[in-house]
Design a protein that fits this description.
Radius of gyration: 21 Å
Strand order of the largest sheet: 1-2-12-7-10-6-3-4-5
Order of helices and strands: EEHEHHEHEHHEHEEEHHEHEHEHHHEHH
Shape: globular
Number of helices: 16
Distance between the termini: 50 Å
Helix content: 40-55%
Number of strands: 13
Length: 406
C-alpha cells in the first residue's frame, strides 16, 4: 500500500503486512531474470574490525537474487586489503573490492585529476562514485542498491524491501529511498535529520520562499538515510558531492534528472541502529560538526543552481529563523519521546542546535568566499567523454587487485 507523504511529491510505500523475507526474495529472484541486481557497500577498513559488518556479510551470504556485490574500501594499506579479500571471500555472489588506496586505482585517480575530473577530497561520496563507475564498467547489474556497513540491526529483509520497487518489472521507479524509525536503546536518535535538516528546510522556505525543490526534499521521511536503490543507468548522469553531502546531493540530482513519478521511498525496517557519530564541537573536521557543515553547503549550492541568490544578510536571517524553528521542534520531540517511553536529553539537543546554527553561517561564508569552487564530482557521462577507455581500465585494475598479486 502506498500514499503520498506530506505534499504529494513522491510515492511512499508503507510496510503494513511485514511480508516474510523469504517471500520477497522468491519474487526478487524472478525479477532478477529481467533486471539483474547488484549491491554497493562503501566501507572504511575500520568497519571490518567493528561489530556490524561481519553480521551484515553473514546475512548477505543468504541473499539469492544479487548478481554482484561491489565493496569500496577506503583507508586500507596492502595488508589490510589482503585481509579484506579474505574477509569477504565467503560471499557467494560475484564480489569485487575497490582498493581505493591501492597503486592501480591511485594511478587512475591521478589521471582523472590531471583532466580536472577527479574527486577533490576523500570521503563517502568519492567512494560511492568510484563504485558506481565500476558497476557501469562491469555491466552485471541493471538495478543497484546501496547501504552502509555499520548497521548494527541489519537483516536481509532491509535489502529486499529496498530493492523491490525498482526491481519489479511492472513498476516504473528509477530510484527508491529507504526510511526507518531512528530509535535504539530507549533513545530517540537521528539528530542531524531531526535537529538540522527538518528545521533548515522549513527555514529556507521562509527565507527563500516556497520552491518545488524544498517541497521535494521535505517529502522524504528520512533524507539522510544511507540506503537507496536505483536503475544503473541513473548512475551515469548524476553529479554528487565527495563529502557528507552525498545523500542530499543524490536526491537533488534525481529531482533534476527524473520525473517525480519515477521516485519513491519505502519503509525498510522496524528498528535501525548504527555507529553514532560524536558531535565533535571542538573539531570542525569530524563527527556531526563536519557532517552538518557539508550538508548545509550542499543545500546552498543546489539552491544557487536554481537561481536563488544569497548574501551575508540572508545567511544571518536564515540562522535566526532556523534556530527558532529548531527549538520549537525540540519541545515537540521531547513530548513525543515522553509519550513513547523514550529518553531525550534536552540540554544536549539544544547544544547540537547551537552548533548547527553556527555551521549554517559558516557554510554560508564558505559558499560566498569560494565562488570558483567545483563542489561536485563530474558525472560518469562527462568522464567517459573526456577519457573514453577509463571504465575499461578501471575494470581491469579492479580485476588485477582482486585476482592477482598486489
Amino acid at each position: 500500500m502506498s500514499d503520498f507523504h506530506q505534499n504529494g511529491v513522491i510515492t511512499d510505500f508503507h510496510n503494513l503486512t511485514r511480508r516474510p523475507v523469504e517471500a520477497l526474495e522468491q519474487e526478487l529472484s524472478q525479477f532478477a531474470k529481467r533486471r539483474p541486481m547488484g549491491l554497493i557497500l562503501p566501507s572504511l577498513f575500520s568497519e571490518l574490525e567493528g561489530p556490524a559488518l561481519s553480521a551484515i556479510v553473514d546475512e548477505l551470504v543468504k541473499v539469492p537474487y544479487l548478481n554482484e556485490i561491489v565493496i569500496g574500501l577506503d583507508r586500507a594499506d596492502r595488508e589490510q586489503f589482503l585481509y579484506a579479500r579474505e574477509f569477504f571471500s565467503r560471499l557467494p555472489q560475484h564480489t569485487r573490492i575497490l582498493w581505493n588506496d591501492g597503486p592501480r586505482l591511485r594511478e587512475l585517480d591521478a589521471e582523472l585529476e590531471s583532466h580536472d575530473l577527479g574527486a577533490l577530497e576523500p570521503g563517502k561520496g568519492r567512494n560511492v562514485w568510484y563504485c558506481a563507475g565500476y558497476v557501469l564498467a562491469s555491466g552485471r547489474s541493471s538495478v543497484v542498491g546501496l547501504h552502509d556497513c555499520d548497521i548494527l540491526t541489519y537483516d536481509r529483509s532491509l535489502l529486499a524491501r529496498l530493492m523491490y520497487p525498482v526491481a519489479h518489472p511492472r513498476f516504473n521507479y528509477s530510484f527508491c529511498k529507504g526510511y526507518y524509525p531512528r530509535i535504539a536503546e530507549g533513545k530517540l536518535n537521528g539528530r542531524v535529520s531531526r535537529l538540522m535538516v527538518t528545521p533548515l528546510l522549513r527555514a529556507l522556505k521562509t527565507v527563500c520562499g516556497p520552491l518545488p525543490y524544498l517541497d521535494y526534499l521535505d517529502s522524504f521521511r528520512y533524507p539522510l538515510s544511507g540506503e537507496f536503490a536505483m536503475r544503473s543507468d541513473v548512475l551515469e548522469g548524476i553529479r554528487i558531492p565527495a563529502d557528507w553531502g552525498l545523500e542530499i546531493g543524490v536526491l537533488s540530482e534525481l529531482q533534476r534528472n527524473c520525473s517525480h513519478r519515477q521516485l519513491c521511498q519505502v519503509d525498510i525496517a522496524d528498528a535501525y541502529d548504527h555507529k553514532h557519530q560524536p558531535v565533535s564541537e571542538d573539531d570542525a573536521n569530524g563527527g556531526l560538526n563536519r557532517m552538518s557543515l557539508d550538508i548545509a553547503k550542499a543545500l546552498y549550492r543546489k539552491l544557487a543552481t536554481q537561481g536563488v541568490s544569497f548574501s551575508s544578510e540572508d545567511f544571518r536571517t536564515l540562522k535566526a529563523t532556523y534556530y527558532r524553528l529548531a527549538l520549537d521542534l525540540i519541545e515537540a520531540y521531547d513530548h513525543d519521546a515522553t509519550m513513547n517511553g523514550l529518553s531525550l536529553d534536552r540540554h544536549c539537543e539544544e547544544q547540537a542546535v547551537e552548533l548547527f546554527a553556527s555551521n549554517l553561517l559558516e557554510a554560508g561564508n564558505l559558499f560566498l568566499d569560494n565562488p570558483r569552487e567545483r563542489p561536485f564530482i563530474p558525472s560518469w557521462n562527462r568522464v567517459q567523454a573526456a577519457v573514453p577507455d577509463i571504465l575499461a581500465r578501471m575494470h581491469e585494475a579492479v580485476e588485477l587487485d582482486n585476482q592477482g598479486r598486489v
